[in-house]
Structures are given as structure tokens and as C-alpha cells.
Amino acid sequence: MTRRNGEAVVRVENLHKSFGALEVLRGIDMEVHKGEVVVIFGRSGSGKSTLLRCVNFLEDPTSGLIEVAGVRLEGGHRTKGKREQVRQIRIKAGMVFQQFNLFPNMTVIGNVMEGPLTVKGIPEHDARANALELLAKVGLSDKADEYPIRLSGGQQQRVAIARALAMEPDVMLFDEPTSALDPELIGEVLTVMKSLATDLHMTMIVVTHEMGFAREVANRMVFFHEGVILEQGTPDEMINHTKYPETKKFFEAVL
Amino acid sequence: MEGAAQASARVPFRLKVAFVWVVIFTILGLLFAAADFNTQFMRDSADYVLRGLLYTVVIALAAIVLAVVLALIGALGRLSSNPVAYGVSGFYTSFFRGTPLIVQLFLIAFALPVVVGNLGLSSGIEDLLTLDSLVAGILALGLNYGAYMTEIFRAGIQSVSHGQSEAADALGMTYGQKMKRVVLPQAFRVIIPPTGNEFIAMLKDTALVSFIGATVGQEEIFRRAQLVGTRDFLPLEAYLLAAMVYWALTAIFTFFQGKLERRIGKGYVRGGATGGTTKKFLPSGGAGGVAGGGGMVEIETDEMSGGPELPGQSH
């Protein structure tokens, strides 16, 4: 099951992030290899979302190093020269948000085509064909011309996944993708995410509390605690044989 | 009694309001007839005054275009972390909101050429800044309204949720792409209704341009009303005529503004089919129009589109 011997798609070295006096990340080292599905979990405030947002520089790391698909970038002050590198990293890392963040001024297919059209300059005809294919993949071909507002939360999130996939990213970042959904809608989103892992062998970093998903799909689980990685391992190692009382306590709370 | 109340409840609200309007107009009409206005003069002058419509509309259109450009730049400046951009836009809005429009109009029309002349700059610049009254009017109105609209634009841009901006960033968009494709189209939904109001207010403020004179043949409505009114010693008839023209003009633009708002509402309304068959959108307030009670309005209320209160406008 593990495919850890591939090249590293994401590399994080000694990453620190502070918001004012509060140090949220206190030295994170992590590598994610091609085709690997890594689930990050931990209590709220442990820094797991912040790490994800540092990987594509939605938050500027205070210090440390981020490498995504060969683009290396130091943390610290965002200079003009860095801006273009940040953009390159973002193009290579697709992001799915907790709140979906679809563009309400565009139709569903417009959302999926937007990245390829505007950012990559792909011809409209090709972008449309590719978008239709992706919408079929997430099971929403019939909603292509609807506006996002008319879709359920689960449908919106699947469109958001298609939108990120349309950029043909090297890695997908999922920031609590099912936390804002009604319980009955969670399944459809997880099913799509599973198929990304099993059918497309997509490299994925997923911040989630869905332990069922982690057990089934993750190659590795990483437990965040107070801004550091406390432990990591396969789902079996983590869920059934954890060495740390903090991890045990977390599982008792969610399982 | 109860029967009468029930009968009354069956008459649609709009019909009742229409009746009130008819009564008001009847009373006004009777007063008008009794006051012995010179209607012959009004009919004769209508053609001359109406030819001023072109200049009124040209001034207002050109000025609103200028104001929109200035407001967009001003708003981006107000939201910028660059101290120069922030400072300059702050000065601009403070000055043009802090002084009367009529003073700005006189400054631009009369003071600007003199000041430039006293600075001893080349006479070419001086000539350039000796403005035609039409141009001076456009400049003054555009600068003044642009300053007010900077706040409308700023609030509109801020109404677009941070998540939208992050989603655009995450796709790898540049600042310009993000603004053009994601933030501004959504901000305009919030910006356009009050901008329409500003335009309608501006249509009326074009009358102030009459104070700096006008090239013969290029007078706007109010200037023409003044001219015919003084010529024939019938100022009341002339001003009444001007009032009617302005009123009709604003009513027409208010109607179109409502249509525009409904178009922009697309994508924000739940239920109903796509493509214009949805029944009711945002209520569009209007001069001469009555806001229909309780439309089937369902607007998205989550943070994706929740607009903030716009700053109050007072000219």
C-alpha cells in the first residue's frame, strides 16, 4: 500500500509560523511523496490547517523552507521576486477549502474552467472539454450550467475539487473538506476523494477528522500537537498502536 | 364594517397606491389650471429646453465614467498597504468630499487657469487648462462624485469574502487577474445599485454647471430654462418645465437601473430556472416607482455574498 519510495512532491523543512506573539508552528519537517495520501489530524489549534496554508503560501511562513514540485522557497518576508515563485507553487498545488469558496459569479463549468483559462491561458475549447470530463468524474455533468448557489454543499465541494483538478496539480491540499457539510452529504465528497487516490494516484495532503476515510485511504497519518508533529505512521500504527497519551485521548474523543 | 375591510383587503396594494398618485396629480393639475400658468409659452419653449437634454446627459455620462474610474483607483488606494497610494487617495476623498461641489466647479472653471498662469508655466498649459464650461462641468462632477463613490467601491470590494480572494490566489492568479475575474465582478453587484443612485443624483446636479456659463448652443436644460424664462419674464413656467424634464429623465433611468440590478442578481438567487425566468430579485427602489410589498426575494445570506452596509451618501 505504501508508495514512499517515489520522489518527494512536497518537502517542508524546519517550518515556523507565528501570528504575533503566538507561535502556531514550532519546527515542522515533513515530506510527501508522489502518489502518497497523507492525513493530518489533531486538535483544533494544533497548527494542522496553518501548515497546509503555508504549503501554498496562503500564509507566509515565518521561517523555514517549502518545496512543491521542485519549486523551493524560503519563508520570511514576501519580496517582489518571491511573488512569482509563490504563484508557481500555487499552480502546482490544488487547494480545496472547508467553505468551498466557489466563485458565485460564474457557472459550475465556469468555475472549473477559470484556472486553465485565466492562469494557464488554455484555449476555451480545450478548457471546456477538460472541465466537462472532470465534472463527469465528480458526478456533476448535469449541473455544468447551474450557478453554485443552486447546489447543495456536497455538490459545491465536488465542483471545488474539479476546479482544483483542472489545473492538473502535482499535489492536492484538502483543508477540512467535509467539516462544513451536513452529515448526509459527507459521503459523496469522501467518495470523490477516494477515487482521486485510487484511480488517479493523486498525491494528497488532507486535514480531516474523518478517521474512516483515513483508515481506508491514507498511507500515512500525521498527528499534530501544539505546533509540532508528535507522531506519525500508518493508519493501523496510529489508530491501534499509538504510543502517546495525547493521540490516544484524541481518538477517544473522535471515534 | 367588516365587509368593507375585507373588500379593501382584496384590492391590490399597488392599485391603491396608483389611486393615490392619480389623486395627487389631479389636485396639482387643478392648482396648475387655477394658477393661470402660461401653457402656450411652455409648449413653445419645450423644444428649446429639451434640446438641452443632450448636454445634460453628455455631462452626466462623461462625469459618471470619470467618477467610476476615479472611485475604482481611489478604493484600491484606500485598501492598499502602500503608504503613497493610501495617502493620495485619502487626500483626494477628504478634499472633494469636504468642499461644496459648486465651489469645486468655480475653482476648476475660473481659478485653475489663473493659478497656472501665475505659476509662470508655459502659456500652452494655461490655454489647455482654460476649460470649456462643458469640460469643466464634467471634471468637477466627476472628481466630486468619484470621491463619494470611492467609499461605495471600497465597501463593495470589502464585501467580497476573504475566501474568494484566497480561492483565486490558490489557483495561482495574479493580483490583476484576481481583481478582474473574481473580486470586482462580485463587488460590482454591491456597487452598481448605489452607483445608479449617484448617476441619477448627478443628472440633477448637472444643473449647477449653468452657473459657470455655457458656450452658445451647448446649454444644458437648466441654463436653457433660465434663458427663456428671463427673456419672456415667465420664470415660473420655465423652471416648472425644467423640473418636469429632470423628473422624467430620472424616472427613465431609475427604470433601467432596476432592470440592470435584476440582471446582476443572476447567480445569487436560489430556486427557479436559469436564464431570466426567475420571478423576483432584489427590490429596486425607485423615483416614481413603488417598492412592491413582499416580493419572493431569496438572497444568499452566507458570507459568500453578504454585503455590508454602504456608507450613507449625502451631498
Name the features.
A: 255 residues, alpha/beta, four-stranded antiparallel β-sheet, 9 helices, 10 strands, globular, B: 315 residues, mainly alpha, 12 helices
Q: What does this molecule look like?
A:
- The complex is a heterodimer of chains A (255) and B (315).
- Chain A is an alpha/beta fold.
- Chain A is 40% helix and 25% strand.
- Chain A contains nine helices and ten strands.
- Chain A has helices spanning 48-55, 80-92, 108-119, 124-137, 153-165, 183-199, 211-217, 235-241, 245-254, and strands spanning 8-19, 22-33, 37-42, 63-68, 71-74, 93-96, 171-175, 204-207, 220-225, 228-233.
- In chain A, the strands form two sheets. In chain A, strands 6-7-8-3-9-10 form a six-stranded mixed beta sheet, with helices on both faces.
- In chain A, helix 3 packs across helix 4 and helix 4 packs across helix 5.
- The mean pLDDT of chain A is 93.
- Chain B has helices spanning 2-10, 13-34, 39-50, 53-78, 83-98, 101-118, 123-129, 133-159, 162-170, 175-205, 221-231, 235-264.
- In chain B, helix 4 (53-78) runs antiparallel to helix 5 and helix 8 (133-159) crosses helix 10 (175-205).
- The N and C termini of chain B lie far apart (48 Å).
- Chain B is flat, with a radius of gyration of 24 Å.
- Chain B is an all-alpha fold and 315 residues long.
- At the A-B interface, helix 2, strand 6 and helix 3 of A face helix 9 and helix 10 of B.
Entry summary:
The complex is a heterodimer of chains A (about 260) and B (about 325). With about 260 residues, chain A is an alpha/beta fold.
What is this structure's SSE topology?
The complex is a heterodimer of chains A (255) and B (315).
Chain A: E1 8-19, E2 22-33, E3 37-42, H1 48-55, E4 63-68, E5 71-74, H2 80-92, E6 93-96, H3 108-119, H4 124-137, H5 153-165, E7 171-175, H6 183-199, E8 204-207, H7 211-217, E9 220-225, E10 228-233, H8 235-241, H9 245-254
Parallel strand pairs in A: 3-8, 3-9, 6-7, 7-8
Antiparallel strand pairs in A: 1-2, 1-4, 4-5, 9-10
Helix pairs in contact in A: 3-4, 3-5, 4-5, 5-6
Chain B: H1 2-10, H2 13-34, H3 39-50, H4 53-78, H5 83-98, H6 101-118, H7 123-129, H8 133-159, H9 162-170, H10 175-205, H11 221-231, H12 235-264
Helix pairs in contact in B: 3-11, 3-12, 4-5, 4-8, 4-10, 5-8, 6-7, 6-8, 8-10, 9-10, 10-12, 11-12
